[in-house]
């Protein structure tokens, strides 16, 4: 978390420069994007807008594997490396082989499971229990 010139926390990705402007930055696709603002409120609004724009990417024809890659790159890009590694391992061992090739729109909440989807979840739960 960045701080202002008085030492007060500004929020994640925001800090105050010596000239009084607030700098807001985030990383997407391995590139850092940033902008400068007069107030913290403007910087926070810009960050929220930028992240929401990137997060509303869901393409109805993408697979779960494609969504996972997008999620790893854009949603959790700022997590600790060990956390990202744990997520990647859990996905690879528990989810990828079971539903990775399914279309993202075919994945439904457990309360609306079809018979075929129930079979997939039972296989997935068996794999989790054998860890």
Notes on the protein architecture:
The protein is of the alpha+beta class and 131 residues long. It has two domains: 54 residues, no CATH class; 66 residues, no CATH class. The chain has four helices and five strands, in the order βββββαααα. It has a three-stranded antiparallel beta sheet with strand order 3-4-5, with helices on one face. A two-stranded antiparallel ribbon has the order 1-2. The longest helix is centred in the last third of the chain and has 19 residues. The protein starts with a strand and ends with a helix.
Largest sheet: 3 strands, antiparallel
What helical percentage do the residues reach?
40-55%
Mean pLDDT: 78
Cross-sheet strand order for the largest sheet: 3-4-5
Strand portion: 15-25%
Class inferred from helices and paired strands = alpha+beta
Please indicate the count of domains.
2
Uncertain regions spanning at least 5 consecutive residues:
none
In whole angstroms, how far apart are the ends? 36 Å
Structural shape:
elongated
Radius of gyration: 20 Å
Q: How many runs of DSSP E, i.e. beta strands?
A: 5
């Amino acid at each position: 978390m960045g701080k202002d010139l008085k030492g007060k926390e500004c929020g994640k990705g925001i800090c105050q420069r010596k000239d009084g402007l607030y700098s807001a930055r985030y990383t997407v696709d391995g590139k850092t994007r940033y902008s400068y603002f007069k107030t913290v409120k403007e910087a926070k609004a810009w960050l929220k807008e930028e992240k929401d724009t990137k997060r509303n990417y869901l393409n109805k024809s993408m697979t779960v594997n494609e969504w996972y890659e997008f999620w790893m790159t854009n949603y959790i890009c700022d997590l600790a490396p060990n956390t990202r590694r744990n997520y990647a391992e859990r996905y690879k061992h528990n989810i990828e082989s079971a539903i990775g090739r399914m279309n993202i729109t075919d994945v439904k909440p457990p309360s609306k499971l079809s018979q075929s989807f129930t079979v997939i979840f039972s296989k997935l739960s068996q794999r989790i229990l054998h860890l």
